[in-house]
Amino acid sequence: MTRQHRRRRLVATLLPLLLAGGVTAGCTGSDPAEDGDPMTIRLLVREFNLREIGVDCAGSGAYLFVHRTAPYRLVDGDGAELASGELPTGTSIAAFEEDLEVPRVPTFCEFAVPVTVPKRDAYQLVIDDRPPIALTTDRENPEGGPSLVAVIP
To answer: Domain spans of the chain?
Structure first.
């Protein structure tokens, strides 16, 4: 077998494999609809704790389990996990619109968790393996884009 003949045979053998690899290189095996959209889980803990507005906070009283580093799982309506991680630090927001003219006012603790999730009919938030909290989808949120929102209690 000559050198030229071996080269042709090698090209004839490898060319279909290379072409097939080029065609499938862009395929990841996942459905693009499953890749997901960036959203923010917005969790508002209504515990009326007295504190300054805009400071770091965590849930208080019956909501001590809602705090920075608490493990969370975002699941769909069937319980399939879509995202997981640890909660970030919460930020206190005023519980009332009225200016009470004092430095410490009744507040809620708000957590904002960025996630990327596929579209589902229902979402639930599980914090520290407690019962799931139903989330409402707000795709038209003017304050930071699409959100999954929960208010407890």
So the answer is: 32-152
Tokens of 81: 């996990």
Residue 105, φ and ψ in degrees, nearest 5 = -130, 165
**pTM of the entire structure?**
0.72
- Percentage helix, strand, coil, to 5, in the chain? 20, 40, 40
Q: What is the pLDDT of residue 11?
A: 36
- How confident is the model over 116-131, as pLDDT tens digits? 999 999 999 999 999 9
Residue 57's contacts (CB-CB under 8 Å, 6 or more residues apart) are: 49, 51, 89, 90, 91, 92, 107, 109
**Chain centroid offset of residue 38 CA:** 7
